[in-house]
Design a protein that fits this description.
The protein is an alpha+beta fold and 440 residues long. The protein has helices spanning 103-109, 111-125, 135-143, 149-164, 170-197, 200-203, 224-249, 251-267, 281-302, 307-337, 349-372, 387-400, 408-439, and strands at residues 12-18, 24-29, 31-34, 37-41, 51-61, 67-81, 85-97. Helix 5 runs antiparallel to helix 7 (224-249) and helix 5 (170-197) packs parallel to helix 8 (251-267).
Length: 440
């Protein structure tokens, strides 16, 4: 082992041992190789023990903050103690090099070890010791709260298309967006629960901020039962709001759309349906976040389904489906290993990129078509200003495809395209209503 050791890769050397009185001792030193062993300099007044640990370490600070090029090697072994040096023979070692294994992957691979440590610690102190986060931070992570923008955009488009036709009630709008958001939160937590039960999240050792689930179950922050209870509560409160809107605005239409929305969100990962595992999750998400939410939000305001709302619902459905579609790329090896046969696991890179480009083109074309058909206001064309960002997102996905951590900017860019376009599309409807109001 010592023969292959590249000492020049490390800037720090630390020797550790337990002294005669049982206290841990350590000192910084220098090292060189000699005849398959390490020669470590030491002050003459120190008397290390034969059994010792040697840590080789390197960290490069960044001028902007943080670190890079991190690596370490921990070696345990025996030493021959001389006057001004130690001749160390390693017996076993472990370490990490950021160049060969990204930091987040390294952390994920060590989660089982961390859980084992906490179990042993709990046994030794006689009480449960577990990972914790402040309550608000825990809820923020558990619910994946930022993804609610994927609900806000279609609700605003539905309400915006109603406002364009002369209908707007603020209270109904608030109830709609809260109810739809609760169903989305129910979906997120149910997804974590079932992906954990079915093994998809357990197998994923390269999660990103946008893929791989919230990891709250994997990290022991919440139990599976607590996550399931949270999901049920979100659905229950959403059901109360939905029933109120159904009885006051239109029983059959709203109940039908609400039932379809809840079914899609629950069946996305829940057995026996497991839509995401059967390669139709992307379609289900497109329908749920497109026509279901947009038409539902529109009907609550207008008590009718209109061609304006139908056409407006399709682009945002495509954009939200594409969030899921691209987010599945870094997860695909682990999804395939867990039997989660998403659409991305069934296609190669070229096919994924072609579908991505085609669907983006269709979504933008439909926005233009709605204006040409006079089913949307001319101001709705403001949504087209995200096209350059969409082109950039496609290039980023192409350049970083398959590398989870390098893909993070591409995933973020794709999400921004979907949400910004959705919000701008909605803003176009509202802007026209305001223009018409002042033109009277």
């Amino acid at each position: 082992m010592t023969a292959e050791l590249e000492l020049e890769k490390f800037t720090d050397v630390v020797v550790s041992y337990v002294d005669d009185d049982g206290y841990p001792m350590s000192y910084s030193t220098t090292a060189r190789k000699q005849n398959g062993k390490l020669v470590l300099e030491k002050p003459t007044y120190l008397k290390p023990k034969k059994q010792m640990t040697v840590l080789l370490n390197h960290i490069t600070p960044l001028p902007t903050g943080g670190y890079t090029d991190r690596r370490y090697l921990m070696m345990k072994g025996e030493a021959e103690i001389l006057q001004d040096r130690v001749v160390f023979t390693p017996r076993k070692s472990y370490g990490w090099d950021e160049k060969t294994k990204p930091f987040f992957q390294y952390c994920e691979e060590n989660v089982p070890q961390a859980k084992s440590y906490l179990r042993k610690l709990s046994e030794s102190v006689g009480r449960e010791v577990k990972a914790r986060l402040p309550t608000l931070q825990l809820l923020f992570r558990a619910t994946r709260f930022p993804f609610l923008s994927a609900t806000a955009a279609p609700v605003l488009i539905g309400v915006g298309s109603a406002t364009y036709l002369g209908y707007f009630d603020f209270l109904l709008f608030i109830l709609t967006i809260v109810g739809a958001s609760l169903i989305h939160l129910g979906l997120n937590t149910a997804n974590d629960y079932f992906d954990s039960k079915l093994g998809a999240d357990e197998k994923n050792i390269q999660p990103t901020p946008f893929s791989g689930g919230s990891r709250i179950i994997q990290y022991g922050l919440l139990t599976s039962r607590q996550v399931a209870t949270m999901s049920a509560l979100f659905y229950a409160v959403a059901l109360v709001i939905g029933l109120y809107l159904a009885f006051t605005r239109g029983l059959i239409p709203i109940l039908t759309l609400m039932a379809l929305g809840v079914f899609i969100s629950y069946a996305y990962t829940a057995p026996p349906f497991k839509l995401a595992y059967r390669g139709v999750g992307e379609i289900a998400v497109g329908v749920g976040f497109g026509p279901v939410i947009v038409l539902g939000s529109h009907f609550v305001q207008t008590q009718q389904f209109t061609a304006e709302a139908v056409l407006a619902s399709i682009p945002i459905g495509i954009f939200i489906a594409l969030i899921l579609f691209i987010n599945e790329i870094p997860d695909s090896p682990y999804d395939a290993a867990a039997g989660k046969r998403t659409l991305v696991t069934r296609l190669n890179k070229a096919q994924v990129l072609n579908i991505y480009k085609i669907l983006l083109g269709i979504a933008y074309a439909l926005i233009v078509a709605s204006v040409l058909l006079q089913l949307a206001s001319p101001t709705a064309l403001i949504a087209l200003i995200t096209i350059p960002r969409a082109v950039k997102a496609v290039k980023l996905v192409d350049q970083t495809y398959g590398n989870p951590y390098l893909m993070i900017p591409a995933l973020a860019s794709n999400i921004q395209v979907a949400t910004f376009t959705g919000f701008l599309h909605a803003a176009g409807f509202f802007a026209w209503a305001v223009i018409q109001l002042f033109a009277r």
